[in-house]
Amino acid sequence: MRSFASDNNAGVHPQVMEALQQANEGHAVGYGADVHTERAVEVLKGHFGPQSEAHFVFLGTAANVLGLAALVRPYQSVICAETAHINNDECGAPERFLGSKLVGVPHTDGKITPEAIAPLLESRGFEHHSQPAAVSVTQPTELGALYSLDELKAIGEFCKQENLRLHMDGARIANAAAALDVSLAAMTRDVGVDVLSLGGGKNGLMYGEAIVFMRPGLDTDFRYVRKQAMQLVSKMRYLSVQFEAMFGTDLWIENGQRANAMARLLAEKAGAVDGVEITRPVETNAVFASMPMQAIETLKQEFFFYVWEPTRPEVRWMTSFDTTEDDVERFAAALKRAMDT
Amino acid sequence: MRSFASDNNAGVHPQVMEALQQANEGHAVGYGADVHTERAVEVLKGHFGPQSEAHFVFLGTAANVLGLAALVRPYQSVICAETAHINNDECGAPERFLGSKLVGVPHTDGKITPEAIAPLLESRGFEHHSQPAAVSVTQPTELGALYSLDELKAIGEFCKQENLRLHMDGARIANAAAALDVSLAAMTRDVGVDVLSLGGGKNGLMYGEAIVFMRPGLDTDFRYVRKQAMQLVSKMRYLSVQFEAMFGTDLWIENGQRANAMARLLAEKAGAVDGVEITRPVETNAVFASMPMQAIETLKQEFFFYVWEPTRPEVRWMTSFDTTEDDVERFAAALKRAMDT
Amino acid sequence: MRSFASDNNAGVHPQVMEALQQANEGHAVGYGADVHTERAVEVLKGHFGPQSEAHFVFLGTAANVLGLAALVRPYQSVICAETAHINNDECGAPERFLGSKLVGVPHTDGKITPEAIAPLLESRGFEHHSQPAAVSVTQPTELGALYSLDELKAIGEFCKQENLRLHMDGARIANAAAALDVSLAAMTRDVGVDVLSLGGGKNGLMYGEAIVFMRPGLDTDFRYVRKQAMQLVSKMRYLSVQFEAMFGTDLWIENGQRANAMARLLAEKAGAVDGVEITRPVETNAVFASMPMQAIETLKQEFFFYVWEPTRPEVRWMTSFDTTEDDVERFAAALKRAMDT
Amino acid sequence: MRSFASDNNAGVHPQVMEALQQANEGHAVGYGADVHTERAVEVLKGHFGPQSEAHFVFLGTAANVLGLAALVRPYQSVICAETAHINNDECGAPERFLGSKLVGVPHTDGKITPEAIAPLLESRGFEHHSQPAAVSVTQPTELGALYSLDELKAIGEFCKQENLRLHMDGARIANAAAALDVSLAAMTRDVGVDVLSLGGGKNGLMYGEAIVFMRPGLDTDFRYVRKQAMQLVSKMRYLSVQFEAMFGTDLWIENGQRANAMARLLAEKAGAVDGVEITRPVETNAVFASMPMQAIETLKQEFFFYVWEPTRPEVRWMTSFDTTEDDVERFAAALKRAMDT
Question: Phi/psi at C277 (nearest 5 deg)?
């Protein structure tokens, strides 16, 4: 039975598992000096261009924090949406590792704008205030919303103009690419992103995320930072080969498309149930809905998922690369039963 | 000519300077094992009770950060007003030294309430979120407002109930005590404050602040934390004797009363000038006002002060222990001239 | 062709790969609330007793640093051998994450003694000095040497007596257990170890290490520390199931025995080659030898390995769970050729 | 009665106290935008050249740590003598604030050489090891020894050659200048020092040290680092004016000469007492001696001082700018009595 709690409840995609098997041949030098890592880096250069440099870490929080470590010093601050994963869901990892302040700004479904960032720049030059040096956006946002290319370009240009570095948390970027039907580069490099956290774990990998530095010079000392951050993988080939399998084929986008399609179906079925209201635009693989707390409790006996906003109450349901129409039907049926009781 | 930019533009009170002279006799063991430190600690026990423990550091930012270091671990967060000095005016010192997240909440003139804090406690028990462990209030606030004893009690009781530690930034607590006409203990220990930053520098000392731990056990390892935080004063006697001179007499409260009175006078005079609007309640030694930017520029040619909120525009004027009625008259006259041009 | 550079050049043991396959069934809640994690924790309780608590992280450096995080505060120091992995091979990760000082003491083949630790304790109580709070030993050491149970007991008793916490880096503890023919508990819990880094990656896992807290109370806030340290695994089941497969059977000890046996064979064959001197006792799966630099260069054209001490010169060769007698024969033959040229 | 425990047991020199009085006139803008700070910076440019930049902090530990903060990143290490103040007497402040590893090397009376540093550079380029980036020397050393100009030049050239930055802890540099009879620049800038901690507190100031950056570019972001490090002085004029008084006249060197002369006298008198052995060259204002523990205890009843090395036992006696021949005579007499009993 499949869960709608999070896309990380899904397993490992069969093609990825197969690649892991194949990588398990003989010996390989550790820490990245192996052929799978070499190939995975090439694969990502294929997506982001020859000037880009990709490195691998274990998980998304580390991808975000280490990517930002290349952009800010401790006395500088990172501007992000109040809802950003780095701001809410990393237990202060950025503050502790970077020593930097995170400044949350108002947002719409997790999306921020130059207008929201601009007022913070008045603190520049005053040593009493953390100095804004980087902006971090999440595509798609933690609330399932999408930045359009124009919205991203506007932020990218603003950052260039204001000498701010731009980081993108792309934990679910495959879902964004599928929804916008654009290339990975179009959503990142081409809009002015300096550093990207390229998600893998939520899209069918066993573990592992990539940090893509879009320009030379940004990753000069990265390998030392990664080691000190406890993110240097010893048997790197097993992490790299997963990226090779996913981004060296269309698997990444197919998985994103599937999850998005199932979310649309789920929203449609759930929205049709009396008393259930879909509360946010369904643009990727997240569905937010409000329903009575009693029905939530009943439904939770069959399916585990998270209550996002208890006061409303609002719940979050997520689909994944392996969600089937059957899963959605079963879930919708259970939802209906829960609402009827 | 006196400044209205900040109470730290004032000098050292003559009685404090006199005490520094007298302490400059022969040799004394360093790092706090001297008679002046012993006496200063006794003097503060006189204010806060025998169960309290006071320690000295160089400045207010350190008093705040080291006080909080006794209350939170890196994975825990500190809740404060968005306008709090620790959140805005310490260049990320708390984040860097504590490794902790600061969470700013909505406020009225810098004052927060249990209602504003409560929603943050839902994150408790979820390892993805910084765990709320301490609340920090500023008395009076950075906007010159005062918490009433009842407002502080409400926060104190809420913290006890919710197992949150309570820190008070008392950089200008003498002004608060003067305004509320209550003892230092009544505003701190008696309302449930665990740790107090007791201000000295803004009230006539040359340098130095005290951290007062209201209960035994809180300062067990303080002296190691202070040394590692680069705040252990070698010739401690010169810092301690200033506290002896100020808090062993009525000097602290007299200075607070004087500054407050001059602020009231300034607000009255300035408020009477056409086009100048006093924008916040004048409860201690800060006066906030709005006036045309052009007049601000003109006035700044005679008196240096800060523009607090450029969009409005709103300015901040502060009085100090040595502000005279003449100073205020001269400033008000200059203000009138600036508005007339 | 197999490498003798490090035991992390070996791949994933077939039984572990098989377990990963089997775990790849349907959905599972993330972050450790899955049946494999539950079982893996039980399996480790079987080894270390019901009072122990095990948690999983991605790699050995994190196991060491997070284990120590439960034992020291930033103003406290960790005492270890100058050669300890935490002191030499973690790029300052302990200093950065803990904020603590590491103090290296003299050693014999990586082994330290109470006599070497005792002089450091004179700094206790002086706030100018980092306060010794924990001792870290590596079993077997980075130089392949073994502590006897009596040597460990002596350190354990000294630590208890002196109120020092004892950490053990057990990245290769399976090799130690195989060599001493004792249980994991006998070498750790029973000699006074408080926290153990239990190695997996160097003994046939794909990734993952366990931190075993030997007493209740030590891991109270571990899950928050782990998240803030960027070590909370989202799809935990895939990490846990590897520990289940390895420590729920005899695989761990068999792998250790095999690697040790092959090291003895390698030492015998290599030691028989004219001009090659085995420089340290071969007690586990590491062989240290000295030979002319020219021969080293020649041999390196066939086999990659590390020069440990260039001045001597001394090299390190390591065997792993999958090293065969054939591998050793081929290596010894190549060594002979290299020495003959 | 004067102490021989440390030169920080002495008080404030009358000329410095006088300057503090004179600075206490009217109002001044805080944080360094005052005329005394402007003048003090000019005074130090007079010593170190127009290309130098000086900044002020509260104390020596901060001067060292913030100076080093301009030279290393967290994954880089600082090489120093095992006896260095930064390594032994700052309770891990460098590790905590910098996140960097300190690596102590063998020394002679606290002096290190290129030969002692060179072997550590082999770790360069290996991400597993902290990367050596800076060398820190103390002039004079914590053991009272002096580097000759040639010894310093040798280290400076080695550092330039090896692309290492050079920091000097000059907490007692006035004593060194007096002993070597050279200018401050000759001992620092001219031998290749990048950043100097210029001591004040041990030579007659009430508080305060300067950090002198010898080249433009090194202090670009210093003021933010200082604020985040809790070292930005609000009433800066009182700190600056002390440097103006001391380094704008010959007071600094006269104080150093006096303390050194008294140390020589003390060594002569003490060395003449039967059973007392002067254990180290007396080159500045420290005298190290060995004598029976019982005599130490007796002498301590009259004079407080530190036992440096209990096993020997070896004691440290320090003279200061205000030590008189009478003080030395009285101390020598007490020493004799202690030895006779």
Answer: -115, 125
CA distance C232 to A85: 14
- Give the burial string for C121-139 (b: 16+ CB within 10 Å, else e): eebeebbbbbbbbbbbbbb
Fold of B13-247: Aspartate Aminotransferase; domain 2 (3.40.640)
Using the structure block, give the residue that is written with the tokens 């930017």: B293
Amino acid at D13: H
Is D106 an interface residue toward C (CB < 8 Å)? no
| Cβ <8 Å between A227 and D128 | yes
Reply yes or no on whether the pLDDT at C341 is more than 90.
no
C222 within 8 A of C210, measured Cβ to Cβ:
no
- Of all residues in chain C, the one with the smallest CA distance to B100 is C228
DSSP for B268-297 reads HHHHTSTT-EE-S---SSEEEEE--HHHHH
Contact at CB, B99 and A101, closer than 8 angstroms = no
Question: What one-character DSSP code corresponds to residue C172?
Answer: T
- The pLDDT tens digits of the residues spanning D248-299 come to 999 999 999 999 999 999 999 999 999 999 999 999 999 999 999 999 999 9
Which runs of consecutive H residues, i.e. helices, occur in D292-341? Answer: 293-300, 325-340
Whether B13-247 shares its CATH topology with B251-340 is answered no
CB contact under 8 A, A90 and C235: no
pLDDT band with cut points at 50, 70 and 90 for residue C281: very high
Chains interfacing with A (3 or more CB pairs < 8 Å): B, C, D
C-alpha closest to that of C68 among C38, C105, C95: C95
Contact status of C35 with chain A (Cβ, < 8 Å)? no
C75–B225 CB contact, under 8 Å: yes
Q: Mind listing the pLDDT tens digit for each residue in A227-265?
A: 999 999 999 999 999 999 999 999 999 999 999 999 999
Question: Counting Cβ atoms within 10 Å, is residue C49 exposed (0-12), middle (13-18) or buried (19+)?
Answer: middle
Best residue of C96, C120, C126 to probe chain D, by most D CBs closer than 10 Å: C96
Of C95, C164, C152, the closest CA to residue C124 belongs to C164
- Nearest by CB: B75 against C31, C73, C228: C228
Contact in structure between A128 and B91 (CB atoms under 8 Å): yes
CB < 8 Å to C88, chain D: 128-129
> Above 90 in pLDDT, residue D311?
no
Structure confidence at residue B40 as a pLDDT band (50, 70, 90): very high
Q: Answer whether C127 touches B (CB < 8 Å).
A: yes
Sign of the alpha-carbon torsion through C327, C328, C333, C339: positive
**Helix (H) or strand (E) run with residue A308 in it:** strand A306-309
Of the candidates C89, C96, C129, the beta carbon closest to that of D91 is on: C129
Task: Select the CATH number that applies to the domain covering B251-340 from these four: 3.10.410.10, 3.90.1150.10, 3.40.50.1220, 3.90.180.10.
Answer: 3.90.1150.10
Distance (Å) from the alpha carbon of A35 to chain D's nearest alpha carbon: 20
CA distances, B4 to each of B138, B146, C69, C258, D22 (Å): 21, 20, 48, 79, 22
For residue B1, pLDDT over 80 is answered with: no
Structural domain boundaries in chain A = 13-247, 251-340
Tokens of B95: 């984040």
Q: Which two tokens stand for residue B333?
A: 């006259």
Residue indicated by tokens 């790699």? C59
| Chain A residue numbers touching B99 (CB-CB < 8 A) | 92, 95-96, 99
Residues in contact with D61: Cβ distance below 8 Å, sequence separation at least 6, in sequence order: B227, B230, B232, D85, D89, D90, D93
Q: Do D29 and B10 make contact, defined as CB atoms within 8 angstroms?
A: no
The ipTM is 0.97
Say which residue the tokens 């030499």 belong to. C88
A75–B contact, CB cutoff 8 A: yes
